[in-house]
Every structure is written in C-alpha cells, then in structure tokens.
Design a protein that fits this description.
Blueprint (H helix, E strand, L loop, with lengths): L2 E6 L2 E8 L10 E5 L10 H7 L4 E5 L17 H16 L3 E6 L1 H12 L4 E7 L7 H16 L7 H8 L6 H13 L2 H12 L6 H4 L6 E6 L7 H10 L3 E6 L6 H4 L1 H21 L2
Parallel strand pairs: 3-4, 3-5, 5-6, 6-7, 7-8
Antiparallel strand pairs: 1-2, 2-4
Length: 278
Amino acid sequence: MKWSRKISDGIAYHYHADASDSVDEKATPIVFIHGVGLRAESWHQQLSVFSERYRCYAIDMPGHGDSDLLPNPILTLQDFADVLTTFITNVVGRPAIIVGHSLGAMTALQTAVSSPKVVCGVAALNAIYERPDKAAQNVQARAASLIDDLTQNVTDQPIARWFDGNPKYRSEAKLCQSWLDEGNRLGYARAYQMFAHLRGINAADLKTITVPTLFLTGELDVNSSAKMSLAMADLLPHANAVIVPDARHMTQMTHASAVNAALARFFVRCDSDSTVNA
C-alpha cells in the first residue's frame, strides 16, 4: 500500500492512495472509510481489486492508525463528516464514491447529507438505523467504561462478536485484534463514545440523499442488522440493499468476494448515473 500524509488545520492525516498505471486520471475516485478502532488496512481486499480500475483512497480517521486526534474531547458524527469532506476536497479533488463500514458507513451517509457536492455515490456497510433502546444502552455503557479506563482490554468483546471464534477467520481476527491492541486508546474511546450515542441518520435526512446508495450488511450481524439496511434502502429512490449470507460485522474481510461483487455492480451503476447526469 502506498501511504501519504496530509496536514489540515494542524492535524495530520494518514491515508492510502493508489491506482493502476492504466487508470484514467478522470476515473471515478473511491474513498474507503473504516469503522471504530480499525484503520485503512481493513480494506486491503477491496483496494487490491478496485485500484486496477479506479483511483482508490483509504484514510485513517482521526485518532485511528497514524492519524492525529481531533482537539475536541467530545466528538460528533458531523466532526468526522467534516474531516471526510475536507479530505475529498483537498486531496481527492473531485466528487467521490464513499464506501464506509460501521461508523465509517455513518460518516459516509452524514457526508452525503451535509456535503452532497463532494459525493457521487455511497456504499454503507453494516450501518445502523433506529438502534433499539437496549442495544443503545449496552454500547453506551461500554463507551463510558472505555473513557473511564483507557488501559482495559479492548479486544475480547469485539473480536468475539465479529468472528464468533470461527477458525476460518483466524487471520482476520488476529489482524483486527492487533489494530485494536496497538491503536490510540483515547482515539478509540472517543470515537466509540460518539458511535454509541448514534441511533442512526434520521429518515428525513436520509431522504435528502439523491446519489446512488448501497446498504450492505451481514445476515448474522445483530447490531447492524439486515432489517436496518432494508429499512434504509426502502426510504431512498436510488438505493438497494444486499444481505450477505452467514456474515457478521466484518463482511469486507470475512466475505470479501461477495462484498467485492456487490461493490463492483454498484460502482458501475454510479458510473452510469454520472454519465447520464453529465
């Protein structure tokens, strides 16, 4: 992976940028956004495929990977959307398809709502919508615990939830565990706290998204359920949902072939839409 560093308003952001030598400079750019506690490398199975045809970017979001923390101790989803908008404007240089996972999916959707001019498509993987009270209470309790004790074990719960001890995904689980263990604990805690208090993008805001939109999740993902993705897709005239069988939360890593096939179809659709509207 080729890495670069961008400093904006005194904050340094670490990001991956790549494209095959044969990719046209005018090719649609794609920006990949990871979830809480992860980093840009979580998209390695997508970047290796799609950089053959598209200009691909993957950014370490603030407080993750090698990117700096934002100065504000209490984050909002709009803070992350603003970072993404600035990145697309100053680094990518033209409207992009945003592919986000978990909190990254929420960031992608919020960016499409608040900065529609920088977005030409959104693929929201394992997003939440109308999170139930009990689920909200559980993640909020964990968020408070993370803020109170930055030295505690941060890997066991998510790794168990994401991979369910399946030996088939041992290498993927070890990678995620290393990112959680070695990451910025304060960055993780602040991002998790922000994510924990999200119920989802409200219906009225979702309906303002006019670009092609894909909602994809795993059949077995309880917290980012199939029901949520289907409900969001029903709200938008240019949206569809894909539910990946037998997948949990880390679909892009555990079920890369299915995810890449769905993304490939979606990218073609975005290209067709941009041609029609050009």
